[in-house]
Amino acid sequence: VTLDMPAAELLIAPARPIVLAPRLPGAPVARSVAPGAPELGVMLPYSPLHHLLLADVGATLVMTSANVTDEPIAYRDDDALARLQGIADLFLVHDRPIQTRTDDSVVRAVPRRAVLRRSRGYVPGALALPGDGARRPLLACGAELKNTVCLAKGSRAWVSHHIGDLQNYETLRSFTKGIDHFRRLFAVDPEIVVHDLHPEYLSTKYALDLDDVELVGVQHHHAHLAACLAEHGEAGAAVGAIFDGTGYGLDGTVWGGELLYGDAASFRRVGALLPVRLPGGDRAVREPWRMACAWLVASAVEPPAAWRPIAELARSGLASPWTTSMGRLFDAVAALAGIRAEVNYEGQAAIELEAACDPSEPGAYPVAVGGTPLVIDPRETIRAIAADVAAGQAAGAIARRFHRTIAAATVRACAGLAGAHATEVVVLSGGVFQSRLLLESVSGALTRAGLRVLVPERLPVNDGAISYGQAAVAAATR
Questions:
Q1: What DSSP assignment string belongs to 212-273?
Q2: Could you tell me if residue 383 is left (phi over 0), alpha (psi between -120 and 50 degrees) or otherwise beta?
Q3: Is 206 in a helix, a strand, or coil?
Q4: What is the reported pTM?
Q5: Could you tell me where the beta strands, DSSP code E, fall in 74-198?
Q6: Is the four-CA dihedral 467, 470, 475, 476 of positive or negative sign?
Q7: How do residues 316-351 score in pLDDT, each as one tens digit?
């Protein structure tokens, strides 16, 4: 990798996070390490055992977490021996048991410091709650994916280590144990418990099962907006472009390409990505070609013959809820460009789409932005991409034109809404803004337009910040 000074400073900082840095062409690293990604994660040893191991080996090591895909990491020797027996050839154990299951933190230095996973090294450091803080002790249960929890009392909030995706029993156990651990550690007995609006999230069900507490439901994208404002100590209202994969909307549909105006206490949805169908529901998340099919149908482009059964789902609406998800639009374009039709992990299609971008490509696609509420309508974009694919245009050119198109549409939308609401503050948050290219393009253009751009810096731009945002909303309204 190539490290600039900000990245090098993060690498040697006491927290010792994993630092994402650009992969050098021809780097002597196996292709199976972070395949399709433009960056590699590098870290220095942070424990005495690491130093001993590295000193004995005398070379750079490739390391990965001790877990099976979609399961939490094993931190007990007996658990590791049982779950990883068919994967690991040897086990290095120690006579000092690990007390808490904690992943490594992951950060990126540019265009500004960004924490992609806040865990070991940064937790359990407190974050401030602005204004009067939490007048009553509270627990915020976070989201379903990239879950964290947050306890708050007075002016301080404690966001937990990265817990992960609450989709199996082991992670749910880690979630409940993490809450118990933080309650003991900070002597917080919650009177208010905050949860996402999605009724099927396991974090929501946990909250609803509690007795003798006041329950507060917070909309997912409002939590993103509130988290960023609170982190920066911003009390006033702002326009927020909150782009991610999935969030339960106030109307019961799947939101994910949201333009909001508000503060921690309240918000209004002032715009969104054009809604399309999500064919097969959650299955479309794992199979981006389904979203490609849905966007072709919405754009009046005939899908390939093999996709026609799914096209009928999209047309009929059967098992295909509406979604405004920006993350699913990126998935769709990755599939249309031939980059990724199915994914093995969340965000893979978008990561590989960004990695494929040809930096020499100067073009962009047409896109419609306008109306009240404002709509970002990329149907012309999809038609132009389909024409490029049919003409044999390179995937790298398509990917770069698409990123430039969405960046320009976001800038137009945010600048227009900021003017309409007489604010100079714009928040950019949600997992889609983990794209370095998109974030740099949008934040740079908005700054040049005279707006003040706020981006999460001490917390992740993804759902790892949701619990803190939930706490900020509850503190502002209770």
A1: SSEEEEE-HHHHHHHHHHHHTT--S-EEEEEEEEEEE-TTSSEEEEEEEEE-SS-EEEEEEE
A2: alpha
A3: helix
A4: 0.97
A5: 106-108, 114-117, 127-128, 134-140, 150-154, 156-159, 192-196
A6: positive
A7: 999 999 999 999 999 999 999 999 999 999 999 999
